[in-house]
Amino acid sequence: MIDVEKKVENEEVDEESEFADEVKEEEKPVEETPTEEAPAEEKEPVVEMQKEEEPAEVEEEPSLDVQKDEKGTVVGFGYPEDSLKKIEEGRGAFYKEYRKSNMIKWVITFVVIAIVLAVWIVPGQLPEDNYFRVYQLPFTIGALVVALGGLWLSSFFFKKSTDSSMKKYFHNYYECTDSYVFGDKIYNKEGNVDCKLDQQVLIDSNLYADIYKVGSRNCINFDYAGQHCVFSDCAAQIRGQKALQTVFVGKLLVTDNNWEGDDMIIYLKGNKRALPPTTLNYYELLEDSKYMVVYGSITCKKFLTKKVRDALAQFKTNNTLVDLAISIRGGKTYIAMGYEDNLMILPMDKVFDPRPTMQFKKDTEKVFALLDAIANR
To answer: What is the rounded average pLDDT of the residues 271-276?
Structure first.
């Protein structure tokens, strides 16, 4: 297996949509109907990268006290743990401050507009020889310059205040989430929401080809059961024909392993929103089942012991965990958990729904169980 590594050019790219999971489906070429003179060639069966829809199979959601208003809109939850409750308290404090600042900003804007209009209109109602009417234009221009300057200053300070409040909210969100999800299972934890993942780490996973940009946040390091782990929120993008195209959004865990065989990829199929690895053409297909596909050399079957298969069987992809891609390389394990927006986008104006985070905790427990199975296979 040849490493799929690309150098990143030093170009500025808009970072607003780092975690936006918007991928347009490519148009499928129209297959030509074979004629009698040119019979159709036999083709290898196409591997279906999405699991079959099963409406009857619905994952049970945690039982929560969901509070709704008269219109049926969710206005609160009975949070089962303090760390989840603190997330909502932090969100509420941030949004209250944001609304207050936004309201003051609009009041100042209307006042500025009123002053400019007054300076322009009022002198016109005065006698022609009045001082203010004679110099109406200079007064208006001066008032406009002062008003715009004041508006710019107020916007600058309000943005600074909002950014500070948002940063505090983000820190609180991830500290509470990490505490809830990992608990006492990890130790020697380092890092916070401002820490970034070295994008070479995701490139080295060989899960996604031609990675151009990796956006990340809350890259933390910790130890679990004697294994050092790197864990991060991240979104990977490649260069499309007209814009950057997202190939992964979710949580990435990287740790060491004792595997000395060939590279392999294990992919747990998801729904239509799933983003499968883009390097599978470099591998040989080993297994293709209803829920999972495995790529690698024939020697990789030694890795898939009963313990490992049992641990993999515990994962269930759904509308929150859209898919799961695992890259096994000599000495390194990469686990890319593709998650939907309901977990990856922090709530702002709406009440914090703890259910995606509660599932994230269960998924992480399954990841740790998989690491145990790999270490003791």
So the answer is: 92
pLDDT tens-digit series, residues 222-254: 999 999 999 999 999 999 888 999 999 999 999
Mean pLDDT, range 343-371, rounded to an integer: 96
Higher pLDDT, 63 or 220: 220
CA–CA gap between residue 195 and residue 175 (Å, rounded):
13
